[in-house]
Amino acid sequence: MRLMGGDRDRWRPAGRASGLPDRRGSRPARTGDGTAPVVRDGWTVRHGIHPVMEALAAGVVVEVIAAAPDRAQVAPVIRRAAHLKVPVREVLPGDLDRETGGARHQGVAAVVRPFAYLSFDDLRVRVAGATGDPLLVALDGVEDPQNFGAVLRSAEGAGALAVIVAERGSSPVSAAVARASAGAVDRVPVVRVPSLSTTLIALKQDGFDVVGLDGEATAAYDEAIARGRLVLVAGSEGRGLGRPARMACDRLVRIPLLGEIASLNVSVAVAVVAFAARSARRQGTALAESGADVDAEPPAGPPVD
Q1: Which of 10, 119, 3 shows the shortest CA–CA distance to 59?
Q2: What is the pTM of this model?
Q3: Residues 271, 158: contact at Cβ < 8 Å?
Q4: What domains does the chain contain, in order, with CATH numbers?
Q5: How far is CA 303 from each of CA 194, 297, 299, rounded to the nearest angstrom?
Q6: Secondary structure of residue 88 in the 3-state scheme
Q7: What's the DSSP call for residue 29?
Q8: For 195-219, how does the pLDDT look when each residue is reduced to its tens digit (9 = 90+)?
């Protein structure tokens, strides 16, 4: 059974027992002239048709805000909100601009419950309940929200159990991250820890193989990724892995590049290696089900004259 993070308890209610936000405490106070408050990026807002629909599907929306709700592209969002009994507030386009801080909202936004990160103890519970070989992704110093969101999308697609980030020096989960993740932010847990290197060492003690992605490494990723519990560690595009995270890895691998570009986007690099790891797991499962020895050497080819 895959333990993914799509359950509603990942988003903490921001106010009353009903689950709806207490408008006095969970949203910014209105400005003195009575205009709608600016909802800051990363606080409790999603904007855009697709992000709002994904948030509705995840069950984390407490209010939909719409300008011109009868517009063809907005109407399906309103119908979905009504079906889920999520309140809809119609505002003027200028008010929606202020609600979203001037973001490209496509006429609709959603107030969502504050994101709840998992702790390392939470992660250990999920690992204990997982079947098969769990795959984790850890990010060291990825501060760009677009890259963070894209990594979440790649990690979710590869079946990762969670993505681990440090409390400091990493992008928080924000509206920009949610948009870039294409809904993956609601499906793959994000574990926030005080020290990434200390966490990696603890995971090694729990039986995980910790593999860092480094363009200067001598081993290629397809030569070093094996079955078993695995943590893929990736750094920022500019700095790469920091020394503490690098030292905590069991080994470093690179993705051989045939072109003239020196590196890949961090989300692409994570996707390449994570899907290779998933393929190794699938092959191992198929061999085990066939009764073959998964640790045996492959059969030799025909004799060559």
Answers
A1: 10
A2: 0.75
A3: yes
A4: 30-112 (3.30.1330.30), 120-256+264-288 (3.40.1280.10)
A5: 57, 17, 12
A6: strand
A7: P
A8: 999 999 999 999 999 999 998 888 8
